[in-house]
Amino acid sequence: MATDEITQKVSDRYARAASTGEQMCCPTNYDMASLQSFIPDEVLKISYGCGTPAGLKTVSPGETVLDIGSGGGIDCFEASRLVGPAGHVIGIDMTDTMLDIARKNAPIVAANLGYTSSNVEFRKGMADAIPVNDGTVDLIISNCVINLAPDKRKVFREMFRVAKVGGRFTISDIVADQPVPQYLVHDADKWGDCLSGALTLSDYIAGMAGAGFLGIHLIKFSPWQVIDSIYFFSVTLTGYKLPASSYQSDIRYATLRGPFSRVVDELGTTHLRGIPQPITPDAVCLLSQAPLASHFVLSSDPLWLDRADDRWTAVYPVDAPCAWQGHFAMLAGPFAEAADDDHHVYRRGEPVEICSKTLTVLETDGYAPHFAIINRAGQNVSGGAVTCAPNGACC
Ligand SMILES: C[S@@+](CC[C@H](N)C(=O)[O-])C[C@H]1O[C@@H](n2cnc3c(N)ncnc32)[C@H](O)[C@@H]1O
Rounded mean pLDDT of 209-236? Predict the structure, then answer.
């Protein structure tokens, strides 16, 4: 199917939705009472996102925020409140009906916030040709849009181009646990439903990484729907455009604290828990970012950790039978690869079948923020206990 046809169908679909106010799409978690206090209903009722990228408090006063596929403007207006009158928000969208509603409501929102003039502007434009200058944006947000764009790699490259050095993105979007088959990809009507264009989590993160972003990690995961045994879910991801390696620091080593027993960082360096690893200035910069910083001790001299050290963290599997209940875990950053203490290796975005014991491990505080976990089982799972090896390992 031609990309122009996809784009036209998607735009028509959202133009129709904007004029009728029909309900569409996915799980969000807005504080509606708070938004209703300053955003008109006309905007709120055409909120078609699948997360809350601006509402997640990643936005700081004075920042420049870009919203890709801003629709009726809900996230732009939330960002407008969070950046304050000294900040600036740019919403871009390809659909005139959406832009008309957003532009009409911008002065109303500004007045409700007590601003002398609106700090939000809406520009007509495409996600893969963003009408914004290079290196000018602190924070890029987008809510359920990139799945609708036929050439996602181009979108990711555009995001990297417009981000400031030191800037970041927080994006909510729909992804799938496996490649969407061709019969859905070529179903023009399902593009607008956020199905046909969904990437796998693995390809989504790889696309961001390929554009140059680093420190890509999960903020939120919400299951959405299962169609033809394909699990579609919403993720909110953050990542950084880091400075080049002029970074001045006396840090030379990183020691992994855990709970992972081994990780491969996004620069390709393997870290074993407790063992100091020499690192480059680029790695110092990367490993200093949240949430990576909490997994490492950075030092100027080699520093070993052992189990007795308070900084060592681990979650060991219990010595008990396990049950296979249909769970699959997907590592969603901030590492390219990671291993737990039961020999499971998780590669970013790739589903790994896990037993009940491993599920318990991955639900603990140190692991849980980094995994999207789905259950692919149908109704008939016996879930019978499987005896484990004497060391507690079973799967
Ligand atoms: C699912 S709606 C989400 C709107 C808004 N982000 C929200 O949360 O309500 C998708 C929006 O993205 C716009 N859009 C879709 N694909 C686009 C593209 N390739 N370039 C620019 N805008 C696009 C549509 O016009 C529509 O307004």
Answer: 96
Segment holding 391, helix H or strand E = none
- Output b/e per residue, 300-320; b: 16+ Cβ within 10 A: eeebebeeeeeebbbbebeee
Average pLDDT, the chain: 93
Domains of the chain: 3-240 (3.40.50.150), 246-314 (3.40.5.100), 322-334+349-386 (no CATH)
Query: How many angstroms separate the CA atoms of 46 and 55, rounded?
Result: 17
Q: pLDDT by residue (tens digit) across 247-263?
A: 678 999 999 999 999 99
CA of 109 to the centre of ligand 1 (A): 20
Q: How far is CA 99 from CA 74, 82, 93, in A?
A: 12, 21, 7
Q: Is the CB of 69 under 6 A from ligand 1?
A: yes
Tell me the C-alpha distance between 309 and 306, whole Å: 6
- 149 CA → ligand 1 middle, Å: 9
